[in-house]
Structures are given as structure tokens and as C-alpha cells.
Design brief:
Layout lengths: L2 H27 L8 H9 L12 H8 L3 H13 L3 E5 L7 E5 L1 H21 L5 H19 L8
Antiparallel strand pairs: 1-2
Helix pairs in contact: 1-5, 2-5, 3-4
């Protein structure tokens, strides 16, 4: 095994955990510690109803967007509903699809979540040039694409 492979795997895990901890601390500082998955709220806001559109994102769609399991989405939605951040309604075109809609409390929390994530990102990228940031974005996109590729069928 390439010695850098193990180091990259460990750094990836450490960065992921440090980022989660920093976001949790920022959320707590903003009184939003009960928001377990801030990106879920921001996605719900992005897909929020408009006069011309009222989409119904299934839990599996949310799971795909967040790269987490549908069970984790379900748990997060239940927690957000208990906290008063969302309410659920049957879908307008498909009653089997329950819509998660932001409440006023949820909309207010989105601002705090976005601010927390931005504060952590600014801290994380301190001392990294714009050129390095662009390279980092390109590399991380390529890494994500590599992981999302469906396994090639083996020909025997």
C-alpha cells in the first residue's frame, strides 16, 4: 500500500470530524444546538414552495443530496419537526409523498445555520489562496465523482 494512502484516509476522517465538531460548536453558540443536520434545513429552504412550484422531495432524494441514508434523513426530519423547525404535509400531487416545509422558526434557523457553516469554512480556509481554493474545489469534486461512479461490471 502506498504510504500516502493511509495518511490521506486518516486526514480525510480527521478533517470530516473536525468540521462536524466546529459546525456543532458554531450552532451551539448561535442557540441552534438542536439542529442536528444544518444542511438539511438549507436544502429544504432551497426547495421551498414558490407560487409556481411546490416540489415534494422524497426522503431518498434528500438522502442522495446529503450522501446519507434515508433512515438518517428520517431521524433528522423527526427531530426538526419536534423542535418546531419544520411541519409535514401530504404532497399536492402525490399524497404518498410527505412534504417537509419550513416553519418561521425553521426559516430563521437557516440564517444561523448558514452563518455557522460560513464561519467554519472561513476558519478552515484561512491562509489558503484563491488559486489553492479553486484547486481544492476541483480535487474534491473529482474525488466525489470517483466515489459516486457505479462499480464497473466485471467481465469473466
Amino acid at each position: 500500500m502506498d504510504p500516502n494512502t493511509g495518511q490521506l484516509a486518516l486526514l480525510s476522517q480527521q478533517l470530516h470530524q473536525a468540521h462536524r465538531n466546529a459546525v456543532a460548536a458554531e450552532l451551539a453558540a448561535r442557540g441552534l444546538s438542536e439542529v442536528g443536520h444544518p444542511m438539511l434545513l438549507t436544502i429544504l429552504e432551497a426547495y421551498e414552495e414558490t407560487p409556481h412550484r411546490r416540489p415534494c422531495l422524497a426522503q431518498r432524494d434528500l438522502a442522495e443530496l446529503l450522501h446519507i441514508s434515508p433512515a438518517a434523513v428520517s431521524s433528522s426530519l423527526k427531530s426538526l419537526e419536534r423542535g418546531g423547525y419544520i411541519r409535514r404535509e401530504p404532497g399536492q400531487t402525490d399524497a404518498r409523498c410527505s412534504q417537509a416545509l419550513l416553519t418561521d422558526k425553521g426559516r430563521a434557523a437557516v440564517e444561523g445555520c448558514e452563518a455557522a457553516i460560513e464561519a467554519v469554512t472561513v476558519k478552515m480556509l484561512a491562509g489558503i489562496s484563491d488559486e489553492e481554493r479553486a484547486m481544492l474545489i476541483a480535487l474534491r469534486r473529482r474525488m466525489l465523482a470517483n466515489l459516486q461512479k457505479s462499480p464497473e461490471k466485471e467481465v469473466t
